[in-house]
Amino acid sequence: MSLTDNPVQSSHENHSIAIDAATLGRLATRVRAGGMFLCSIDQAAKVSSFDTSADAFYLKYVLPQIQSPGFPLVTTQLKLIDCVPGVVIAVFPVIDRKQTVSTFLIAARSPDFGISEDLLRKCSQLSLDATWLAQRASSLPANDVGQITWHTQMIADALRDQMRVSEMRTEMDSLSNQLSNTYEELSLIYQVSSGMKVTRRPNDFFRQCCLDVMSVLGVRGVGVVLRSESLKQIEPAIYGEVELPAGKIERLADDLMVELRARKSAILSNNLAADKRFGWMGEFARQMVAVPLMRDEQVLGCLFALDVENKPDGFDTVELKLLTSIANESSIYLENAMLFEDVRGLMMGLLRSLTSAVDAKDAYTCGHSERVALLSRYIAQQAGLSEAAVERIYMAGLLHDVGKIGVPEAVLQKAGRLDPAEFEQIKKHPEMGARILRDVKQIQDIIPGVLHHHERYDGKGYPLGLAGENISLMGRIICLADCFDAMTSSRTYRKALPLDVVLTEIRRCAGSQFDPVITDAFLKIAPEKLMDLLKDHRQQMMRYSEASQLRVA
Amino acid sequence: MAENKRILVADDESHILHVVSLKLRNAGYDVLTARDGQEAYDLAVAEKPDLLITDYHMPQMSGLELCQKLKQDPSTSGIPAIMLSARGYHLEPQDTEQSGILRMLSKPFSPRQLLATVNEVLNRAA
Predict the structure, then answer these.
(1) Other CB atoms within 10 A of residue B123 CB
(2) Alpha helices for A126-247 (secondary structure H)
(3) In whole angstroms, what is the distance from residue A228 CA to residue B3 CA?
(4) What pLDDT score does A552 carry?
(5) Could you give the ipTM of this predicted complex?
(6) What is the predicted pLDDT for the residue at A183?
(7) Which of A241, A269, A303, B102 is deepest in the core (most CB within 10 A)?
(8) Would the pLDDT of B51 be above 60?
(9) Is B124 within 8 Å of chain A by CB?
(10) What is the pLDDT of residues A189-214, one digit of tens each?
(11) pTM summary value
């Protein structure tokens, strides 16, 4: 066995200190440079390794003798051995922190090397040529007992230093490893939290979250389950290579929720096939770690990862910790998204009440605001506006007639033509609407839509007589939606117009009453969507007439 | 894949050096380290590594200056570079392109992603 091959281990009682091969190798090289020979001795007092690159003097003459049975290698302290003619040998333990780390033997050519009877006898036993041996010996420096004792001290010190260095190196690597994991975690948290905008859909947020986790963890699958009443349900999803057949993902989601709600802490299984609850998953994955998404002690869902790559022992605290951090971050997002949803729901509810109040003033405009809002949304979508802009236009559509609250019912419900004074009153409703909404900070951006919905593209509208692009985009869209709904509704003075007539009329008015670009977008809306709107209209009318009959009765 | 490829890592923060070197060594790369721009430059000229990973903010010579200097020397102009910088710090794309900087990573970066980037860059260069 060579000193540079395998690490030599020495154990005392329960302790064991490993001296790595590189350390031993370096030491042997230093000893060799001084013309000496180093061996390490194991607990059974046998040569466990030696410097294979040593001079032939040592390998052919000294080594066979110290390896011969009965050579006195047992020692607890420095011992000098003089039974090899012409060679000084010291056997000594290296003690570090009160433990024997290892025992070593160091051999050196003695200053009184000479061809003696003893030496000749040894040579013949070993079939060596004494002249050759003497020649080899003359090329080596001579060391006396004092020098060799000094060398044992040097070796013990060097070994202790080397051990300290390799310990530190190991420690440094372990710290670097921990640090590396911390970096992973930190970078992932940065990535995830920068995507935590409350306006982001939970679906989008969690998909990105899962993809980010996957890239950092090196796993075959990452998924999310979310079951909360106050937030729009998201479908349980799994991303990555692991694929579950239809229905199984729901089963996994159900099982995860039951298990996590019961224990309220993470699940870690490195042998899914043998798991009591998740055994059926063994067919699709080997390992799983799942952490709950919590809000107020309630388990709302979970994040889970399947099959870690390049780690034979499976998931451990590294993945668990990381996933937990992400789950905690995601919980913050969830909390915010829920609050946002609450506030949004409250506001939309209030706005709907307001529009219902307006619509209720006139039987013929029942449901009008909702339909205009829907149609405005369709037009905005066709025009390629952003999702956020589309939602604002929807809201503006809902509120476009809010100013009619200030117009007397007698005027709104008048059968037959309006006289000029009455018409003047009607014409005030866009401005009145704008005034009503002026104090609600959060909806300032939709006021132009309300104010401009009776402006015409050719500038002949009211209240401001704006033309072309000077009319807000919202105003131009709502104007068209409003006219469509008016034409397809029955009025006190006329019946509803058929759809094809209405479409022709709208096409005719592109460029005069309507923005031609908006008209194009409108004409691209699928006819079924328009039909649905008309159907809704009729249903609303029926409901209204039933209600008025009840009132009469 | 990683065999015999040598990577020079330059950063004045020793913990970054340790983490990056460990990750790269474990992946089978040979790693050289430098603690400032000048040391990195000297090493790059002497050793001609296959890739340079450098921090932007370093004493003596910034990461960008280092890359520009290496780019000017025909013997080192072919060394591709990955630059690490503080999050939110932006370099002009023209500066990075002209200095052989193929990728930018923001600190704190994911060591795993860094390794993936290194593999990608070296495979492309090969």
Answers:
(1) 9
(2) 130-138, 145-194, 202-217
(3) 51
(4) 47
(5) 0.84
(6) 87
(7) A303
(8) yes
(9) no
(10) 888 888 777 667 788 888 888 988 88
(11) 0.59
Would you state the pLDDT for residue A156?
87
What number of other Cβ atoms are within 10 A of residue B46's Cβ?
Answer: 10
Residues 6+ apart with CB under 8 A from A377: A390, A391, A393, A394, A397
In this structure, is residue B104 part of a structural domain? yes
Confidence of residue A526 (pLDDT cuts 50, 70, 90): confident
* H-helix or E-strand spanning residue B83: strand B81-86
What tokens appear for A312 in the block? Answer: 């034979």
Sheet containing B101-107: order of strands: B30-34, B6-10, B51-55, B81-86, B101-107
Q: Which of B18, B23, B110 sits opposite A172 (nearest CB)?
A: B18
Q: Are strands B51-55 and B6-10 parallel, antiparallel or unpaired?
A: parallel
What is the pLDDT averaged over residues A21-43? 87
Alpha-carbon dihedral of residues A235, A240, A244, A246, nearest 10 degrees?
Answer: 40
- Residue carrying structure tokens 């952003």: A386
The one-letter code for the residue type at A456 is R
Q: Is residue B15 part of a domain?
A: yes
Name every residue whose Cβ is closer than 8 Å to that of residue A318 and which is 6 or more positions away in sequence: A181
Report percent pLDDT > 70 for chain A.
Answer: 92
Contact B111 A215 (CB under 8 A): no
Domain count, chain B: 1
Pick the residue of A170, A183, A219 with the most B CBs within 10 A to test the interface with B by mutation: A183
Residues A379, A480 contacting (CB under 8 angstroms): yes
C-beta neighbour count of A410 within 10 angstroms: 9
The contacts of residue A111 (CB under 8 Å, 6+ apart) are A142, A143, A144
With beta carbons under 8 A apart, name residues in chain B contacting A176: 15, 18-19, 21-22
Q: Which two tokens mark A431?
A: 């401005």
- Tracing tokens 């058929």 back to the chain, one arrives at A498
B96: domain CATH number is: 3.40.50.2300
**What 3-state DSSP class applies to A387?**
helix
Residue A362: pLDDT above 80? Answer: no
Confidence grade of residue A549 (pLDDT, cut at 50, 70, 90)? low
Please indicate whether, in this complex, the C-beta atoms of A218 and B23 are within 8 angstroms of each other.
no
For residue B81, give its domain range: 6-120
Cα A432 from Cα A521, distance rounded (Å): 29
In a domain, B126, yes or no: no
* Chain centre to alpha carbon of residue A507: 51
Rounded distance, CA A78 to CA B93, Å?
68
Pairing of strands A219-226, A237-240: antiparallel
Candidate from B19, B108, B110 with C-beta closest to A176:
B19
B29 within a domain of the structure (yes/no): yes
For the CA atoms of A386, A391, A392, A394, the dihedral, rounded to the nearest 10 degrees, stands at: 130
